[in-house]
């Protein structure tokens, strides 16, 4: 598929998309290959040419901040390398890794040691990330190392003054919050003290500015970012799952979000049922205020963890066509066969391109 007519002129002919990773009012993020010095480099494109006009100025500011931070962090091998920056685009290297909310490194002390080491390296270069509360901004590589991504809110400081120290402290506190979730028994006494003490600006922000931020982003812009899922995952998915579960042929339902360059965020419903009649399930959703899922796939069985919980981490990758990242998550041969059948029947091929 020729995409030159869809890309900004500054990058047309040089980037080929394989899958859309994320889309919101500030950018569209696509995985693919970038041609540089005669070589095709697997990379990630952030483009702001598709954002609404009223967010373009902010989006451009974020793009520039990310480029400045990556020019430092990429050299440290703790973040993607900056490959190209234009007025409406930024290309960074692709990292073979899983976001924290999918990798779920329970009890993985090596990962959290690596994460603290990465933060120290970043801070030594006077850069703070400023958006590490989100698990999707922490990556785990196949060899268990930590990498950071999404530097749109990062800051490069000229010197280590008080504001830098506050921002660095908050970076560390957010890391420790994730450690508390996945490896709580390994927290040291000093780490517990950091967790217990928010900085004064953070306390003021949570009491005042954060409420205004939520009012603007969630109330006016209708923008939420629960693990990248957006408002439809928050608002529509529970309603749809509840209605689908009421159908007599349905045993269980799992709904995840996937990015779509054309519509923003779509919903993908995986329905566990022995009845392959998709139209019956679609009809069953009629009359709801919630928009039906863009994709509905009937499966004989959903992948499950040992405690019986549905493996939404695997289903998320299927929905996003990131199937090359699934193997490290597979627990055994039985699960491998089950997931292979789900992958073979996946329906979201709209944002996967051949070239």
Rg over CA atoms, rounded to whole Å, is 21 Å
Strand-and-helix sequence, N→C? Answer: EEEHEEEHHEEEEHHHHHEEHEHH
Q: Report the total helices.
A: 11
**Largest sheet, spatial ordering of strands:** 1-2-3-5-4
Task: Using the coordinates above, name the CATH class of the largest domain.
Answer: Mainly Alpha
Summing up helix and strand content along with how strands pair, one would put the structural category as: alpha+beta
Give the CA-based shape. Answer: globular
Number of domains: 3
In CATH terms, the superfamily of the largest domain is Transferase(Phosphotransferase) domain 1
Give unreliable regions as ranges.
none
Q: Between the first and last Cα atoms, what is the distance in angstroms?
A: 6 Å
Mean pLDDT: 89
Fraction of residues in helix? 25-40%
CATH topology of the largest domain: Transferase(Phosphotransferase), domain 1
């Amino acid at each position: 598929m020729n995409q030159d007519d869809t890309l900004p002129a500054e990058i047309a002919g040089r980037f080929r998309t394989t899958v859309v990773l994320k889309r919101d009012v500030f950018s569209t993020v696509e995985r693919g290959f970038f041609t540089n010095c005669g070589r095709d480099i697997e990379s990630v494109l952030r483009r702001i040419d598709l954002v609404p006009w009223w967010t373009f100025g902010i989006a451009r500011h974020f793009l520039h901040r990310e480029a400045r931070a990556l020019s430092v962090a990429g050299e440290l091998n703790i973040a993607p390398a900056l490959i190209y920056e234009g007025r409406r685009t930024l290309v960074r290297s692709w990292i073979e890794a899983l976001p924290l909310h999918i990798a779920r490194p329970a009890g993985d002390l090596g990962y959290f040691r690596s994460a603290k080491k990465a933060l120290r390296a970043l801070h030594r270069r006077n850069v703070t990330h400023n958006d590490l509360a989100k698990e999707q901004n922490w990556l785990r590589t196949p060899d268990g190392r930590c990498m950071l991504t999404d530097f749109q809110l990062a800051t490069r400081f000229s010197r280590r003054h008080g504001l830098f120290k506050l921002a660095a402290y908050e970076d560390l506190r957010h890391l420790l919050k994730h450690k508390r979730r996945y490896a709580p028994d390994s927290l040291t006494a000093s780490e517990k003290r950091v967790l217990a003490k928010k900085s004064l600006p953070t306390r003021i922000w949570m009491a005042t500015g954060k409420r205004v931020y939520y009012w603007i982003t969630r109330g006016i812009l209708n923008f939420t970012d629960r693990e990248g899922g957006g408002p439809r995952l928050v608002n529509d998915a529970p309603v749809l799952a509840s209605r689908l579960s009421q159908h007599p042929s349905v045993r269980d339902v799992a709904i995840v979000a996937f990015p779509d360059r054309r519509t923003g965020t779509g919903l993908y419903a995986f329905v566990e049922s022995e009845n392959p009649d998709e139209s019956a399930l679609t009809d069953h959703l009629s009359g709801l205020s919630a928009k039906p899922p863009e994709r509905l796939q009937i499966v004989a069985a959903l992948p499950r963890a040992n405690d019986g919980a549905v493996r939404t981490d695997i289903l998320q990758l299927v929905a996003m066509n990131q199937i090359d990242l699934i193997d490290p998550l597979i627990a055994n041969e039985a699960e491998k066969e089950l997931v292979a059948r789900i992958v073979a029947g996946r329906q979201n091929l709209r944002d996967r391109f051949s070239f």
